[in-house]
Write a structure and sequence with these properties.
The protein is an alpha+beta fold. The radius of gyration is 31 Å and the shape is elongated. A hairpin with a 4-residue loop joins strand 1 and strand 2. The N and C termini lie far apart (120 Å). It has a 19-stranded mixed sheet that branches.
C-alpha cells in the first residue's frame, strides 16, 4: 500500500510540474523569432491555399500575453492586383466570437496601410470575392467567418474605391474612382463578416485626391448587402459642419446602385447643420460659382431621388433669411418631366440676402431700382403653394412686407394641339 501511495504521489508531482512548466516552455518557444517565422510560414501557406490567392507577411512578432505585431502584410485579389497592404499592425487577441465564426481583437494600432476596393469584370467588388472564399458555408449552424476589433488607432491609411467605368469630372469627386488619402481615425467595435462591415468611428480625418478634406468625422456605420446605414454622424470641414441623426441608403443589393436614382431608397435627418456651397461643389460642380452658405438646418428626406419628399423645418441664410417648407419631387433627374408639390409655410428674407443670392446663383447683380424697392419693403415674408412642373403648374402666393401685402395666383396649362400646329400654346 505504501508503495502504491509513493507511485501515485510521484505521478501527481510529475503532472503538476508538467502543467506548470509546459505553458512556460511553450511561451518561450513561441517568443523565439525562428519559431515565429516557422509558424508564420505555415500560416501564410494555409491562408494562400484557403483564399486561392497570394498572401504574404514580411515579419511577425508574438508576445507572451497575446500581443501580435505584423509588418508588411499583403493580400492580392483575383485580378493579381493589391487588395490590402498593411505596413504595421499591432493588436491583442481577445478570443473567439461567441459562435466561433471568427476572432476578436482589441487595443490595436494600424499604420501605413492601403485598401483597394475595385470592381471586377464580373461586376462585383474584389473584396467580396475574397470574403466569399473565407466564408464557411458548409458548417452547420455557422455563419460567415469574420473578425471584430475593439479600440484601434488608424494612421496614414489609403482607401481606393474604383469602378471599371470612370466619370473623370473636370472638378470634384469622381464617385467611380475615389481615393481617400492620409486617413487617420479611432475605430471601436469594427466588424467584418462576409460582405458586412460596421463599427463606431471617431476623430476621422482624410483628404480625397480631388482636394476635398474632412477635418473631423464621427459616427456609427453599417454596410451590408446594398444597405448603407449611418447614425449619429458629425462631419466637420473647413467651411461646413454637418450633423446627421441618421442616413440610410437601401437597395435590394449592390447592383441596385447602378440605377441609384430609381432603385435606392434614402431616409435621412439633418440637425443643427451649416453647409457651404464651396464644399458641396466637390460633389456637385455646378455649385462652384455660388459662394454661399446656409446655417441652422433642420431637414429630413425620404424616398428615392426619382420620388423624393423633403421636409425643411428650418434653413437660415445671410442677415435674416429663414425657410420652412415641404417639397415632394417626382421625375428627377429629368427636369422637363419633373413635377413638384411645394407647401411654402414661411420664407422670410431681405434685400441684402436676395442680392447675395442673385449674385451667387445667377452670376449678376440685381437692377438698382429693384434693390431700392426691396430695401424700402424691409422684411419680406412669403407663404403659399406650388403644384406642377415646367409645362403645367398652379401656384398661389402671399407676400407680406412693411410697405404692403400682395397675393398672386397663377395657373399654366398647355392647350390641346390642333392639326397643323407647330407651336404649343398656353393659357
Amino acid at each position: 500500500m505504501r508503495k502504491v501511495t509513493k507511485i501515485l504521489l510521484k505521478a501527481i508531482s510529475v503532472t503538476v510540474l508538467f502543467l506548470i512548466f509546459c505553458p512556460i516552455v511553450l511561451t518561450l518557444l513561441v517568443s523565439l523569432p525562428s519559431v515565429q517565422n516557422f509558424v508564420v510560414g505555415r500560416a501564410v501557406k494555409y491562408a494562400s491555399r484557403r483564399l486561392e490567392t497570394t498572401v504574404s507577411i514580411d515579419r511577425i512578432r508574438i508576445g507572451a500575453l497575446g500581443s501580435v505585431r505584423v509588418d508588411g502584410f499583403y493580400v492580392e485579389d483575383y485580378q493579381q492586383d493589391t487588395l490590402l497592404y498593411v505596413g504595421c499592425l499591432q493588436l491583442h487577441l481577445a478570443g473567439m466570437r461567441g459562435d466561433r465564426s471568427g476572432i476578436v481583437l482589441k487595443n490595436g494600432e494600424l499604420k501605413d496601410s492601403k485598401l483597394y476596393l475595385r470592381e471586377t469584370p464580373d461586376g462585383v467588388m474584389n473584396i467580396k470575392q475574397v470574403m466569399d472564399r473565407i466564408s464557411n458555408k458548409e458548417k452547420k449552424g455557422g455563419g460567415d467567418f469574420g473578425f471584430k476589433i475593439r479600440n484601434v488607432q488608424v494612421d496614414d491609411l489609403t482607401l481606393v474605391i474604383e469602378h471599371r467605368e470612370h466619370r473623370d469630372p473636370e472638378y470634384g469627386i469622381d464617385y467611380s474612382d475615389m481615393h481617400l488619402e492620409h486617413t487617420s481615425a479611432f475605430i471601436d467595435d469594427f466588424t467584418l463578416r462576409g460582405g458586412m462591415i460596421g463599427g463606431d468611428i471617431r476623430n476621422f480625418s482624410t483628404t480625397e485626391h480631388c482636394g476635398f478634406r474632412i477635418d473631423n468625422f464621427k459616427g456609427r456605420f453599417l454596410v451590408d448587402r446594398g444597405i448603407i446605414d449611418l447614425r449619429d454622424f458629425e462631419i466637420v470641414t473647413d467651411k461646413s459642419a454637418i450633423r446627421l441623426k441618421s442616413l440610410v441608403l437601401r437597395g435590394e443589393n449592390w447592383a441596385s446602385y447602378k440605377d441609384f436614382v430609381h432603385n435606392v431608397a434614402i431616409d435621412g435627418e439633418l440637425y443643427d447643420t451649416s453647409v457651404s456651397t464651396d464644399d458641396i461643389a466637390h460633389f456637385a460642380p455646378g455649385l462652384l460659382p455660388w459662394k454661399l452658405a446656409v446655417k441652422d438646418m433642420q431637414v429630413s428626406v425620404a424616398g428615392s431621388v426619382a420620388d423624393m419628399n423633403v421636409d425643411v423645418q428650418n434653413i437660415s441664410f445671410g442677415e435674416g433669411t429663414s425657410l420652412r417648407t415641404n417639397v415632394s419631387l417626382q421625375g428627377l433627374p429629368d427636369i422637363g418631366r419633373t413635377t413638384m408639390a411645394v407647401d411654402l409655410k414661411r420664407l422670410a428674407t431681405c434685400e441684402a440676402d436676395v442680392s447675395r443670392l442673385a449674385s451667387g446663383i445667377g452670376g449678376s447683380e440685381l437692377p438698382e431700382r429693384l434693390r431700392s424697392v426691396m430695401n424700402g419693403a424691409g422684411e419680406m415674408i412669403c407663404a403659399g403653394r406650388f403644384n406642377g412642373g415646367i409645362r403645367s403648374f398652379a401656384t398661389d402666393l402671399k407676400l407680406t412686407t412693411q410697405a404692403g401685402n400682395v397675393s398672386v395666383a397663377v395657373k399654366r396649362t398647355p392647350m390641346n394641339m390642333e392639326a397643323g400646329d407647330t407651336v404649343r400654346r398656353y393659357a
